[in-house]
Specification:
- With about 110 residues, this protein is α+β, with helices and mostly antiparallel strands.
- The protein has a single domain, classed as Beta Barrel (OB fold (Dihydrolipoamide Acetyltransferase, E2P)), CATH 2.40.50.1020.
- The protein is about 25% helix and about 40% strand.
- The protein contains 2 helices and 10 strands.
- It has a 3-stranded antiparallel beta sheet with strand order 3-4-5, with no helix packed on it. Strands 8-9-10 form a 3-stranded antiparallel beta sheet. Strands 1-2 form a two-stranded antiparallel ribbon.
- A hairpin with a 2-residue loop joins strand 6 and strand 7.
Amino acid sequence: MPPSWKGFQPVELNTLINCEVSGRHTSFYFTNPNSRCPAKAVYEYEELLSATGFARIRKSFPANMLRLKEYIRDKGSSVILSNKTEVEVSRRKKGHFLSRLKSFFSYY
């Protein structure tokens, strides 16, 4: 439930596609076109998100594994999310991401 300057609005985590960090703010992108921008750093949400199927694919980009549509293993690695956003997986996060991907989808 990300807070905003108006208060807070409960959200279903399965509707959250990804988060994106910009400075000290974290933007949340949902399956509907709305985006929330609470004034908290992503690390404050990381424990909650990690326990619910999110993995960091870049330093500032946790993504919902349930909203992952494709993993592309080309020159670099990238993912395509359900909102058609393509994001390159950083070299530093690739090993951790692939192990999360494997363990996450072994349950489905």
